[in-house]
Amino acid sequence: MTLKALELLPNANQGSTVSVMGYFKDLKLVRRIVLDCMRNVHPIYSIKELMIKRELEKNPDVQDEDWTRFLPKFKKQNVKRAKPLKIKKKKEYTPFPPEQLPRKEDIQMMTGEYFLTQK
Per the count of CB atoms within 10 A, which of 68, 83, 94, 106 is most buried? Predict the structure, then answer.
């Protein structure tokens, strides 16, 4: 859709890549649209503007006036970016497993309670 619109609006022929043939003025328009695309601006904004300018060129009443009031004013939207994930610190690698924790009986044996309570 956009490639077809770019062919029709500035009277320039282009291929499937960004190769364009036409008048110098039309080439400048297409170049501006392509650079905007690389800056992450959707080409529909520029195409709408070109369509309105083409209609204003045909109208003899507004040819000598300023066209800025007819052209669309698009607001920039601030898109919230995803926050980078917190990087966890890597633990130091040890080839041996950790020591076993003592059981209740082991703790009682160390304190001597095991022998006193057992019959």
Answer: 106
